[in-house]
Amino acid sequence: MEYLEFELPIKELEEQLDKCEIIGKESDVDVSETCKQIEKKLIETKKEIYKNLTPWQRVMMSRHPDRPYTLDYIKALCGETFLEMHGDRNVKDDKAMIGGLGKIGDQSFMFIGQQKGFNTKTRQFRNFGMPNPEGYRKALRLMKSAEKFGIPVVTLIDTPGAYPGLEAEERGQGEAIARNILEMTRLKVPIITIIIGEGASGGALGIGVGDRVLMLENTWYSVISPESCSSILWRSWEYKEQAADALKLTATDMKKQKLVDEIVKEPIGGAHTDRQQTFSIVRDAIIKSFDELKNLSPKDLVKKRMTKYENMGVFKD
Amino acid sequence: MSWFKRKTKGITTTTNEKKDTPKGLWYKSPTGKIVDTEELEQNFYVSPEDGYHVRIGSKEYFEILFDENTFKELDADLTSKDPLKFVDTKKYPDRLKAAQDKTQLKDAVRTAVGKSKGKELVIACMDFSFIGGSMGSVVGEKIARAANYSLKNKIPLMVISKSGGARMMEAALSLMQMAKTSVKLAQLADASIPYISLCTDPTTGGTTASFAMLGDINISEPGALIGFAGPRIVRDTTGKELPEGFQTAEFLLEHGFLDFITHRKDLKNRVNLYIDLITNQPIRS
């Protein structure tokens, strides 16, 4: 298990607890009282730390190397029923954007999401979760296929951004994201979107227009990453913490601005500390959202979705 | 002094009493592996030695996909005419006759409806052994009628392509079969009936440029050749050596044209899994 900087007091206490237990086992000294105290302190420390995370700490949590990724969720939710589908029918199969059909209970869903790798090799294979235009076009193809057969769409967002590459520009990164956003506003099936990690800008919104947009507790979603924001506005990478504050990119802030619909609680310590619980929370969230949407006619569904996005923005008249 | 001493008498069979092993007992895969044909048959016509997917025809695919090999063949008696009085090294009617005699098939596609994992499925399967699986009026019409059957009875359609392309002996009539079959696929799409395209070795030319690439899912088998222009033509025209694996199923998957590649033994399960998922029905185990 890896610890982030602000988690070090937890690491210390956990090590103390381990030692205490070992002493208890190996000698006749009664340590149960000490152990209990350490445990109590550990729980309190955890609560204290995770309750008061700064925006920048949330960003770090969202990028925690042990965090579950898109395919982990899908496989946990669908098991054997998941059938991955590939390709944009145009130039390539983008490994940074995955998709396919799967069942939760009796209901089929079309799952789409950015995929990150879990070690150096797979991170490169997945292009660090940064899709190319073909990734967005693959996503759209799958959404259209789902629409054709009346299958609801679930998108899982976890990207540091769309890939800023030469070929990506040649093939129309901007056009691909734009097309997805437009088509998603009028897709005739329910769309449930969950930000499970990083939600960076257009690269996230390219699969992120939904009837229900949920954010896991320790994720971020904004127009730019705090690092890039710092480098552009402060002309230095040093101000990422201020930038994270200023951007109001946490789930709580996004909910407050009515840009996302719901915050999904994670197990204490983050999604990675208890994956099974995380998966079951996400599963319940998807089912709850779908139950709210499934009886709407396609017309009402689209109308409501459009109205929701029409109302975003703050201005003086 | 000899190194070995023969204790028993040597082979004494006379030449005219020697027996050949009957033909067809063994199959040699392209990598040179020798497989017992019976074993091959039990292994879905895939070499257990190297995973090579042997080219098979409609008879074998129907056997693999339909429950207990039970199905009703559609339009079995449709045969080609010779509208253009076409002659190359042979007259077209003679070529047709020869192909029919050799293959015991009427033309390059057979269409059928039957149960696959307990649910009805319409399958149109091409036969490469009949004039290179070429598509003329009969192939176009039979696929169109199979699609009609799907439309009328709301049954998913699967087309198994295995073809060198359009049939030259019917010239532009063949070309227009690409449009004709596409019309039917458009109607199927409007009716939201799933259409599965399985591209097998080889799928080229007008077949690729029409129904083979238009599936709700396009799938293939390992190593299958899939392309528009054949590899020889591409090489001769461009004067360039082709990259390794050019136009294989794996190449097409990488370039975004296939949803997945499946081993033949998993074909029936995966096709039916897709149908259950996309029609939101309980998954048949």
Automatic annotation (TrEMBL), chain A:
Identify a single GO molecular function assigned to this protein.
carboxyl- or carbamoyltransferase activity
Q: What is its EC number?
A: 2.1.3.15
Query: GO CC terms for this protein?
Result: acetyl-CoA carboxylase complex
Q: Does the keyword Nucleotide-binding apply?
A: yes
What InterPro entries does the entry give? Acetyl_CoA_COase_a_su (IPR001095), ClpP/crotonase-like_dom_sf (IPR029045), COA_CT_C (IPR011763)
- Which pathway does UniProt place it in? Lipid metabolism; malonyl-CoA biosynthesis; malonyl-CoA from acetyl-CoA: step 1/1
Q: Primary place of residence? A: cytoplasm
Question: Keywords in UniProt for this one?
Answer: ATP-binding, Cytoplasm, Fatty acid biosynthesis, Fatty acid metabolism, Ligase, Lipid biosynthesis, Lipid metabolism, Nucleotide-binding, Transferase
Q: Which residues form a coiled coil?
A: none
What chemistry does it catalyse, as a reaction equation?
Answer: N(6)-carboxybiotinyl-L-lysyl-[protein] + acetyl-CoA = N(6)-biotinyl-L-lysyl-[protein] + malonyl-CoA
Please list the residue ranges annotated as the CoA carboxyltransferase C-terminal domain.
Answer: 42-292
Task: Tell me the Pfam families matching this sequence.
Answer: ACCA
Enumerate the Gene3D superfamilies for this protein: 2-enoyl-CoA Hydratase, Chain A, domain 1
Look up the record and give one Gene Ontology term from the biological process aspect.
fatty acid biosynthetic process
The places in or outside the cell where this protein is found are: Cytoplasm
Q: In UniProt terms, what function does this protein have?
A: Component of the acetyl coenzyme A carboxylase (ACC) complex. First, biotin carboxylase catalyzes the carboxylation of biotin on its carrier protein (BCCP) and then the CO(2) group is transferred by the carboxyltransferase to acetyl-CoA to form malonyl-CoA.
Q: Which HAMAP family does the record cross-reference, listed alphabetically?
A: AcetylCoA_CT_alpha
Subunit structure, as described in the record? Acetyl-CoA carboxylase is a heterohexamer composed of biotin carboxyl carrier protein (AccB), biotin carboxylase (AccC) and two subunits each of ACCase subunit alpha (AccA) and ACCase subunit beta (AccD).
NCBIfam families attached here?
A: accA, AccA_sub, PRK05724.1
Q: What is this protein called?
A: Acetyl-coenzyme A carboxylase carboxyl transferase subunit alpha
UniProtKB/TrEMBL annotation, chain B:
Respond yes or no to whether keyword Lipid biosynthesis is given for this record.
Answer: yes
Output the GO biological process annotations, alphabetical, semicolon-separated: fatty acid biosynthetic process; malonyl-CoA biosynthetic process
Q: Where is this region: Disordered?
A: 1-23
- CoA carboxyltransferase N-terminal domain boundaries: 24-285
Q: Where in the cell is it found?
A: Cytoplasm
InterPro entries with a match to the protein in the record: AcCoA_carboxyl_beta, Acetyl_CoA_COase_Trfase_b_su, ClpP/crotonase-like_dom_sf, COA_CT_N
The alphabetical list of record keywords is: ATP-binding, Cytoplasm, Fatty acid biosynthesis, Fatty acid metabolism, Ligase, Lipid biosynthesis, Lipid metabolism, Nucleotide-binding, Transferase
Q: Mainly localized where?
A: cytoplasm
Q: Superkingdom of the source?
A: Bacteria
Q: Which Pfam families match?
A: Carboxyl_trans (PF01039)
Q: Which reaction does it catalyse?
A: N(6)-carboxybiotinyl-L-lysyl-[protein] + acetyl-CoA = N(6)-biotinyl-L-lysyl-[protein] + malonyl-CoA
GO MF terms, alphabetically ordered: acetyl-CoA carboxylase activity; ATP binding; carboxyl- or carbamoyltransferase activity
Q: Which Enzyme Commission number(s) are listed? A: 2.1.3.15
Tell me the route in metabolism or biology where this protein functions. Answer: Lipid metabolism; malonyl-CoA biosynthesis; malonyl-CoA from acetyl-CoA: step 1/1
Q: Which NCBIfam families has this protein been placed in?
A: accD
The annotated subunit structure for this chain is: Acetyl-CoA carboxylase is a heterohexamer composed of biotin carboxyl carrier protein (AccB), biotin carboxylase (AccC) and two subunits each of ACCase subunit alpha (AccA) and ACCase subunit beta (AccD).
Recorded protein name is Acetyl-coenzyme A carboxylase carboxyl transferase subunit beta
What is the source species?
A: Formosa algae
Q: What is the lineage of its organism?
A: Bacteria, Pseudomonadati, Bacteroidota, Flavobacteriia, Flavobacteriales
